[in-house]
C-alpha cells in the first residue's frame, strides 16, 4: 500500500503533467498572433513560437501572463510598455476576454480606443498613459464593471469626460490629466464610493466645484483631487469640507474667485493645498496655519489683502516622494 508521501507525490506529478499539457485557448492564441503580426513590436524577438503561453520548452511570451482554467490556459495579463510600439490601438486585444490587466503605457499608440474595449468584462487595470491616443474617451469603458485603475493621462483625448465612467463601482484611481478634454467634469463621478484619486489637471475643463459636488455624499473616499491648469471658475464652496478624506487639493492656475472658506481648514487630513494663480481675495483664515497635518499651502498669484504671506508660514516639514504615493 502506497505511503501518504507517495500519494502526495503522485498527485503533484499528475497536476504538473496536466498543467504542462494544457492547451492555450485558440481564441487567445489567434489574438496574440494577430497583434504580433500587425504591429511588429520590438518585443517580437522574445515572442518565440506560436503559443503566447509557452509551448513545451518555450517560455511564455514576454509581458504575457496566463492561467489555467479547466483544460485550457487563457491570457490574463498583457503588459508591454516603454518599447516604442508604433501604430493604432490593436483591436485584437479586445478578443482577450479573460484579461484582468492591460498595460501598454509609454509607447506611441495612435488613433482612438476602439469601442470594443467594453468586451473586456474582467479587466481591473487599464493603463494607456503616455501614448498618442486621440479622439474621445469611449463611453464603453463604463461597461468594465471590475475596473479599479484607469490611466488615460498624457495623450490627446478630446471631447468631454464620459459620464459613463460613473458606472464603474470598483474604480479607485482615475487619471485623465494632460489631454485636451473640454466641458464640465460629470458630477456623477461623485457617486463612486471607492474613488480615491481623481486627476483631471491640464485640460480645457470649465465649470465650478459647487457643480461637481452637488450630490449629497459626493466623493466619500476621495483623498487626492487634482483640477489644476483648467478654466474652472466660481468660488470654493464650504461644502468641499464635507469631503473629509481629502489629503491633497490642487486647484492652481484656474479662474477661481472669492474668499477661502474657514470650513476648508477643518478637513481633518488635509496635507497639501494649492490655490496659487487664481483670483482669490480676502485673507487666509488663521486656522490653516494651525492645521496639524498641513505641510504645504501655496497661495501666490492671487488678490489677497496686503500682508498675506504668499506661502503658508505654518510649521514646515520635509516632504518626500512617499507623501505623493497613491
TrEMBL record:
Keyword entries, A-Z: Glycoprotein, Leucine-rich repeat, Membrane, Repeat, Signal, Transmembrane, Transmembrane helix
Subcellular location(s) per record: Membrane
Domain Leucine-rich repeat-containing N-terminal plant-type: 26-67
Domain of life of the organism encoding this protein: Eukaryota
Keyword DNA repair on entry: no
Topological category with respect to the lipid bilayer: Single-pass type I membrane protein
Gene3D superfamilies xrefs: Ribonuclease Inhibitor
Main location (coarse class): membrane
Signal peptide (from-to): 1-22
Keyword Iron-sulfur: no
Gene Ontology, cellular component aspect: membrane
SUPFAM superfamilies for this protein: L domain-like
Pfam family, one: LRRNT_2
Family: Belongs to the RLP family.
Protein's name according to its UniProt entry: Leucine-rich repeat-containing N-terminal plant-type domain-containing protein
Natural source organism: Brassica campestris
Amino acid at each position: 500500500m502506497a505511503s501518504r508521501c507517495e500519494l502526495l507525490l503522485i498527485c503533484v506529478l499528475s497536476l504538473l503533467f496536466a498543467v504542462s499539457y494544457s492547451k492555450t485557448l485558440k481564441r487567445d492564441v489567434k489574438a496574440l498572433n494577430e497583434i504580433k503580426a500587425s504591429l511588429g513590436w520590438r518585443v517580437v524577438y522574445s515572442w518565440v513560437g506560436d503559443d503566447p503561453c509557452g509551448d513545451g520548452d518555450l517560455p511564455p511570451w514576454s509581458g504575457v501572463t496566463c492561467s489555467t482554467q479547466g483544460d485550457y490556459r487563457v491570457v490574463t495579463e498583457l503588459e508591454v510598455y516603454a518599447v516604442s510600439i508604433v501604430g493604432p490601438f490593436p483591436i485584437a486585444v479586445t478578443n482577450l476576454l479573460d484579461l484582468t490587466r492591460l498595460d501598454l503605457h509609454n509607447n506611441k499608440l495612435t488613433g482612438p480606443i476602439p469601442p470594443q474595449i467594453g468586451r473586456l468584462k474582467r479587466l481591473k487595470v487599464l493603463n494607456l498613459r503616455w501614448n498618442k491616443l486621440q479622439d474621445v474617451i469611449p463611453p464603453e469603458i463604463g461597461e468594465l464593471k471590475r475596473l479599479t485603475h484607469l490611466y488615460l493621462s498624457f495623450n490627446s483625448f478630446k471631447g468631454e469626460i464620459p459620464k459613463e465612467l460613473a458606472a464603474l463601482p470598483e474604480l479607485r484611481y482615475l487619471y485623465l490629466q494632460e489631454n485636451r478634454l473640454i466641458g464640465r467634469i460629470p458630477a456623477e463621478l461623485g457617486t463612486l464610493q471607492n474613488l480615491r484619486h481623481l486627476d483631471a489637471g491640464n485640460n480645457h475643463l470649465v465649470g465650478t466645484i459647487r457643480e461637481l459636488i452637488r450630490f449629497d455624499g459626493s466623493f466619500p473616499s476621495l483623498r487626492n483631487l487634482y483640477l489644476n491648469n483648467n478654466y474652472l471658475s466660481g468660488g470654493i464652496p464650504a461644502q468641499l469640507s464635507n469631503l473629509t478624506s481629502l489629503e491633497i487639493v490642487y486647484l492652481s492656475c484656474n479662474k477661481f474667485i472669492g474668499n477661502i472658506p474657514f470650513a476648508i481648514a477643518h478637513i481633518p487630513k488635509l496635507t497639501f493645498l494649492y490655490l496659487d494663480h487664481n483670483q482669490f481675495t480676502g485673507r487666509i483664515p488663521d486656522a490653516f496655519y494651525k492645521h496639524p497635518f498641513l505641510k504645504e499651502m501655496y497661495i501666490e498669484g492671487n488678490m489677497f489683502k496686503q500682508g498675506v504671506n504668499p506661502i503658508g508660514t505654518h510649521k514646515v516639514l520635509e516632504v518626500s516622494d512617499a507623501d505623493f504615493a497613491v
